User: Fold this.
Amino acid sequence: MQNQYSPAVRDSEPELRLSTRLGLAFLPWSPLGGISRSSLDGPSGPTSAGTAFHRIAAEHGVSPQRIALAWLLSRSPAVIPVPGAGRPASITDSAGAAELTLSTEELAQLEDVLPG
Assistant:
């Protein structure tokens, strides 16, 4: 199943749960939505999604994109994010998400972030 799903767009939760229950792959498109630099600064400053993902990234010494992908991977074993990459460094960074384990506390902080 392929649906839009990201830190900022989480309305495919029912489909994600169904995919998990049925053992079907869930491929989120635009998996990094909501954490790009351009989407963080709105009229009143950084969004809450940007703040949480960026803060946790700084604590781990990795990119916010890697945190977002690690968060997606933690959602379900059915999740297979396919981020776009225009540079070899982006590919390496994205691949590192598979080895990044977020703590229960960090995941709770990211869950509490209201989308967009």
Notes: The two ends are 23 Å apart (CA to CA).
